[in-house]
Amino acid sequence: MDTTRVTRRARTALALATGTVLTAVVVQIPASATATVPAHHHAAAAPIAPHSSHSVGAFDATSHDTTSYDDTYYKDALGKTGPALKESLHKIISTTQTGKLTYDAVWDALKDTDQDPANSANVILLYSGRSASKNANGGGPDDWNREHVWAKSHGDFGTDTGPGTDLHHLRPANVSVNSARGDKDFDKGGTEVPGAPGNFTDDDSFEPRDAVKGDVARMILYMAVRYDGGDGFPDLEPNDKVGNGTEPHIGKLSVLKQWSKQDPPDAFEKHRNQVIFDKYQHNRNPFIDHPEWVDEIW
Predict the structure, then answer these.
(1) pLDDT (tens digit, 9 = 90+) per residue, 140-190?
(2) Are 177 and 197 in contact, with CB atoms under 8 Å apart?
(3) d(C-alpha 135, C-alpha 189), whole Å
(4) Pairwise CA distance, residues 248 & 241, whole Å
């Protein structure tokens, strides 16, 4: 375990005690805008700081009240369950995704969506929880790169605009740790990943640290609802096994459902969902707004 990591509950208490509130300023940019790939400076990631693993206290939780979207964005899904709910959510999140990025544009988008709330020059790396310089993106072992949480080989959708560039499942990750995850399915167990305390891997699966287990689950389930075989892309579906290879499946569903309950959405994840909605894709991950819908569908 990473003994320097402060739990979400502790961070929340600290924020309440100190009254720390950070108001996010949203700037609208054209949905069609693409980013230029920045120069890759191979700076080492900063040490893990007490605030760096999803700093709940750095955001004002009241600014992420998603109930206001029930009467507008989700109005056609309310009251539905099972396949009807899944189909309704698919229609909502696919038709509202009016902003679609190129793979090059993802670099700069991640510097915004995953910005360290305590250090605007850094991003938080998904698996390690480290706060790393935004400019340390690249291919070196100490750099960070673009992790496809739904591994792009599972369905072989590549990095063309579409599932390969969907920000709702793309996250900054240390290059070496990303390599250790590879295209493995998600499950419990294995040996601890070097440089990423709390993450474990074996021959056919990867287990992320506790602080992002729910994040991973909700990203996978978003992809399963968003990409259903239309738009020329494969029908992505989770299943309850590992070793799925190039099939358009990722497991284990039973474990992902457990992780979603174990690790509910925090302020960092909610803030990220809002930034993607406001500034980039203009669609939302419904399982961040309504985690209970996971059990309603699966």
Answers:
(1) 999 999 999 999 999 999 999 999 999 999 999 999 999 999 999 999 999
(2) no
(3) 33
(4) 13
For residue 263 the two structure tokens come to 């690790």
The count of residues in the chain is 298
End-to-end Cα distance, the chain: 31
Cα–Cα distances (Å) from 203 to 173, 185, 189, 200, 241, in that order, read 20, 10, 10, 11, 13
Residue range 10-28, pLDDT digits in tens: 333 333 333 333 333 333 3
Question: How far apart are alpha carbons 249 and 184 in whole angstroms?
Answer: 11
Q: How far apart are CA 7 and CA 54, in angstroms?
A: 9
The span from the CA of 149 to the CA of 118, in Å, is 25
Contact (Cβ atoms closer than 8 angstroms) between residue 125 and residue 119: no
